[in-house]
Each structure stands twice: as C-alpha cells, then as structure tokens.
C-alpha cells in the first residue's frame, strides 16, 4: 500500500465530522421529542386548536434558545479548559524544557517504544515543534477536533427548530380528535429519520439505534400525554 492510499483510507474515518453532526442530530432529536411531548400534553388537556399552535411555537422557540445557550456555554468552557492547559504547557516548556523532554520520552515509552527510540523521537519532536508535540501526545488536543462555540450553538438551535417543526405540522390535522395522533405519527416518522441519520453517520448498523431513539421519544410523549390527560380530568 502506498502512502497516498493510506492517506485516502484515513479520510474514511468519521471523527473529523462527528462533532457538529452529533450536535445536529441531538438537536433535531431534542426538538422532536420536546415539541411533540409538549403538544401532545397540551392537546390531551382538550384546549382550543389555537392554544395548541401557540404552545408549539413557544416550545420550539424556547427550546432553540436554550439549546443555543447551553451548547455555547458547554463548548466555550471546554475550549477554556484546553486553552489554559495550553498556556500551562507553554510555561512548562519555557521554564524546564529538559523535564518536558523527559516527560515526552516517558509518554512514548508507555506507548511501546524502547527507551532509545523514545528519546530519539522526543528529541526530534522538540526540535520540530515542542508545543505541538506536547499538546497532541500529552494532552490529546487536536486542531481538527476542536469545537467552535458559535458554530456549534447555531447548529444545535437550527436542528432543534427543524426537529420541532416535524411534530408541529401534525397539529394541522383537520379535527381535534385526530391532532394528537397525527402529532405522534409525525414525531415517530421524524424519530426514525434521526435514528437512521445518526446510525449512518456513525457507520453503525441502523436498526438498533433507531429503535432506541423511537422508544425513548415515545416514552417522553406517553408521559406528557398522561400528565395532560390528568390535568384535564382534574379540571385545574
Ligand atoms: Zn508537557
């Protein structure tokens, strides 16, 4: 196998795009389940159709905001941790490069190199780019897996909205009795789709993750439908 073929084969790996795709699928899934559950709960309480639509829109907007903020904060704090690790590493390299060289050597020994070879590799790495070697081999930081907070927050908010619009369409069924069931129907179709997309993107078999996603979503909808029904029965 030539170097070029090896390089091409490496491109088949999925980690490079796993970050944003995972966020998008999770967002769509959240949008589906949260919106469907909310609307089924509301419709189980036998409210007028316009209430149901309003509840759906409010739920989608609130969820998208919460996803955007949550994702931004979580990615930012992850990046902050990595950044302070990076600064610490720069300090260590400036204060005691010898000790850092030994540290790198030790890492290569634990990965299976002999002491001599580990020393040679560590020296070569230090000559080329000591910081890059420490970030990669000591801290496991890779530039291509670094998440971008704004991009991640827009992606999850957008996918929440797309996911939420699927059960929302179910609320436009012609008569009141059919609305709840058509919301459930739309939601299940949507869940099957996110299940398939997430399985395909992970390169794993499709059936199991899809069943898992559909079951999880259905439990959520069943619980809120139960609550909505109880509220309606109790006449609050
Ligand atoms: Zn180090």
UniProtKB/TrEMBL annotation:
Topology in the lipid bilayer: Multi-pass membrane protein
Protein keywords: Membrane, Transmembrane, Transmembrane helix
Gene Ontology molecular function terms on file: manganese ion transmembrane transporter activity
One Gene Ontology cellular component: endomembrane system
Pfam families named among the record's database cross-references: VIT1
Main location: membrane
UniProt-annotated location(s): Endomembrane system
Annotated GO biological process: intracellular manganese ion homeostasis
CDD domains with a match to the protein in the record: Nodulin-21_like_1 (cd02432)
Keyword Isomerase: no
Protein name: Unannotated protein
Keyword Transmembrane helix in annotation: yes
Transmembrane segments: 20-45, 51-69, 154-174, 180-199, 211-231
